[in-house]
């Protein structure tokens, strides 16, 4: 199941994200953050952190370096 979500994110990166250009406010990008979260963390935690990251990806939030927690 974890692999399915990673493949889905990679598909997004190579199709839609490529068309939109590099506009992510964070480093690593939100999609790279999601892949790393799904590779390293339990699925429920990866879903939560990815959703929280996407909700913060807007003009009024802080931007910059925001790594996946080590937990």
From TrEMBL:
InterPro entries: Membr_insert_effic_factor_YidD. It is found in: Cell inner membrane. One of its GO terms (cellular component) is plasma membrane. Pfam families: YidD. It is a peripheral membrane protein. Keywords: Cell inner membrane, Cell membrane, Membrane. Belongs to the UPF0161 family. Could be involved in insertion of integral membrane proteins into the membrane. This is Putative membrane protein insertion efficiency factor.
